Amino acid sequence: MPIGDVTGWRQVFADDFTKQVRPGHFRQALSGRWHAYTDGSADTSKHGVYMTSKVVSVHDGVLDFYLHSENHVPMGAALVPALPTMLYGRYIIRFKADPLPGYKLVCLLWPDSEVWPRDGEIDFPEGDLNGKIWLFAHHQDALSGGDQEAYSTTKKFPTWHTAVITWSPAKIVFVLDGVKVGSSTTQVPRTPMHWVLQAETTLNGTSPPDNAAGHVLVDWLTAYAPV
Questions:
Q1: Residues near 211 by Cβ (< 8 Å), separated by ≥ 6?
Q2: Which listed site, 49, 65, 177, 207, has its alpha carbon 20 to 30 Å from 2?
Q3: Angle formed at CA 136 by CA 56 and CA 207, multiple of 5 degrees
């Protein structure tokens, strides 16, 4: 995990997940550094729920989302690192996931205003876990969720990857494993945003099979504010 400032950027958050946290103890153990969506709240597709207490743990140097169903209810989690208010930033995450049917991962920048789609959104990495990794740049002043730029990569989730979002006033740049995979200069979001890690059910209108169970792992992540 990178440690320290880099040219033009000041490191404001880093987590290498060295503290062991058993399932059900994430909120208490990392209070002040992480927030989580309320247990039982519906996920984006409404086919599953966020259930940090049954999904999230930290062990062996990784943050672990154990995606699974209980009583026919698919469970994921949405976690928010406790960053300062961020207007522009650089965000890096190292991750991999089992190729589970019916589940997806999205690491997104979401407007603090909660006004969407007007205030934009930035998504990377994003994708169904049994598919390819995508990236999306939703435009400032958008009138619909489809007012965006989208790029597909050739990479898939089961191997380790490092994804970088660099969000500046005039441009968003997306880098995967050291290679630039997309950029946007059109209506770049200009309102503060916060970083969210969402492991949840897919948006294709179906629920995961009850026997689909596996893991999204995060090795480390870090965020920088502009100097």
A1: none
A2: 65
A3: 50
The dihedral region occupied by 225, where left means phi > 0, alpha psi between -120 and 50, and beta the remainder, is: beta
Average pLDDT (81-108) is 98
CATH of 9-19+82-226, one of 1.10.630.10, 3.20.20.140, 2.60.120.200, 2.60.40.10: 2.60.120.200
Q: What is the mean pLDDT of residues 120-127?
A: 98
Mean pLDDT of 175-191: 98
187: confidence class by pLDDT, cuts 50, 70, 90: very high
Residue 157 · residue 129 · CB < 8 Å: yes
Split at pLDDT 50, 70, 90, the class of 111 is very high
